[in-house]
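User: Putative pre-16S rRNA nuclease. Structure?
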Amino acid sequence: MARILAIDYGMKRTGIAVTDELQIIASGLTTVNTKELLPFLKDYTEKETVELFVVGEPKQMDNTASESEVLIQPFLEKLKKQFPNIPVYRVDERFTSKMAFQTMIDSGLKKNQRKNKALIDEISATLILQSYLYSK
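Assistant: Predicted structure:
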């Protein structure tokens, strides 16, 4: 089987998580500079088979699109153009950053380690991917 890759898209940094080949476990992969995201994905998909991109969908509490959705739409168009054979699925990402921070606290990370925004983005991508796997 192929992997599923999740993306927590951000203006500066983007968190990335992937499944194992059996699509059972979601694991944080890395955080990349958003400007380098498409080249990173191209390189990754040349080494690993990716069946699906799961991209976080930021929403307001009333279920309408968040302001940051405007930034994600151009990325999605580029993603679909560069990877026409890999479908894109959107997952509600409300509260993933808060849940990621709480995960860091629960796992015993020290206060200065919890300030690592790249780690928060990676954990957020993992939570997005876990959410998708649970919904399957």
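The two ends are 16 Å apart (CA to CA). The CA atoms of residues 18 and 50 lie 9 Å apart.
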